[in-house]
Amino acid sequence: MKYKVKDMNLAEQGRLNIELAESRMPVLSYLRKKYDNEKPLKGISIGGCLHVTKETAVLIRALKAAGAEVAWSGCNPLSTQDDVAAALVKYYEVPVFAWRGLSNHEYYDCIDEVLNSLPDITMDDGADLIIRIHENYCSLLKKVFGGTEETTTGVHRLRAMATAGKLHYPIVAVNDAETKWDFDNIYGTGQSTLDGIIRSTNVLLAGKTVVVAGYGHCGKGVAMRARGMGANVIVTEVDPMQALKATMDGYRVMPMDGAAPQGNIFVTATGCKEVIKRQHLRKMKDGTILSNTGHFNVEISLRDLEELAKEKKEVRPNVMEYFLCSGKKLYLLAEGRLVNLAAAEGHPSEVMDMSFANQFLSVLYLVQNKGRLNNRVHDVSREQDAEVAVIKLNTLGVDIDRLTREQQRYLKDYTSGT
Ligand code: ADE
To answer: Is 329 found in the same domain as 354?
Structure first.
């Protein structure tokens, strides 16, 4: 079996981490057991390009148990957990092509290795693999019959591709499932982003001013958790609706120009480029911490930071100190890449449980509907969302009320008013 990981000696630790994650992912474990006998994915080859973490390993195990052949690469140069990558190769016989710290060139080499396994289904987080197929592997487009996309940025890219008439196979937007983005994006990003900031700097949040750029699901989670740790939170936005929500949630909302001189810690969560650039960097306080939790490292202008600095040095892992010509020091975390995965472990297993249950069920959906879906971005069905919610509640031991017949009738009866 071909593979490329950093160090196979890390495999035992990786296995322990995967087992720990699995013990906190009851929905995915339930699905793995449910489909283990039936093997609905038998004969299906899956090419994955998602962060190689202990939670992803649990997803891969479930896909394999259901009969799939799987090959995997990471979807970010700094997010691979090398122990997990080694364990996937050694204990679970998965051809993995990923290690932490690979170059851009190596990153695409790894994706190419996955594509050489000739997948029938692709699984993306950020859409790099699917776009690689469309650009460089046109012949593979005849074989691939569907794909899934995990994240907001990837869904945006794929919807743009579909609108341009350039998407050549159907995609399920796992990100947009309610049991994904209302949990993973909010609670997962909220907690893991602060985890990344704290692990890398050990900074005290209480009393600090934290500026969160973007008040989508992810920014909302970060703002909520930062406030919970005692920070004063400022939100910056471009969307009037999101800005209004942030205002009514009790945050100060202002343009980045106004926030730049006030913040101690900045977190970008917009999915857009150059949210923090030269004019903002110039106004920032000495000692300011800069971090990003969006998918790509484009939200903080690294070029402007480099140009404003006369020196830089890594003062501890994941913390680069930029000494500006003005005499101020700014601290950039994890090279401006997603701080929650690069400087911590990504979202906790409990929340990835629902996201990856949706990934698993979406792959089943693609197999069951092979040849019947058109080449656009499809939403997860209400039924699938409800199934994941019900299983999760059951595994949490949470019971809920049920409508009586009379209540059901009442809800359908438009005649009974005042
Ligand atoms: N994205 C965010 N957190 C993650 C995790 N723990 N595993 C895989 N993908 C993630």
So the answer is: no
